[in-house]
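REVIEWER CHECKLIST
Item 1: Sequence provided? yes
Item 2: Single chain? yes
Item 3: Sequence as submitted:
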Amino acid sequence: MDTGVVDRPEQNRFELAIGHELALAYYKLDGDRIVLTHTEGPQALSGQGIGSRLAKGVFEQIRASGRKAVLRCSFMAGWSSRHPDYDDIVAG
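Item 4: Structure as written out by the authors:
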């Protein structure tokens, strides 16, 4: 599934381009776990579901990588709680 989300490991973040704007999900690696630390999106696009599109893409990429997600970001934790189909990749 192509969600438009791109992993930028050299910057420790996932990106979703919306026009000339970027929605970002920052992470750090911890062994076989991806620790999601912070999410930010363009204020001008607030309320349009961009964060949810980013989160779905991030979780799909983590699942495809065989890693587990550690949710230190409140946005990602909240999104995950509403999408139990990703519980299998959430650590802790």
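Item 5: Key structural point noted by reviewer: The longest strand covers residues 21-30.
Item 6: Recommendation: ____
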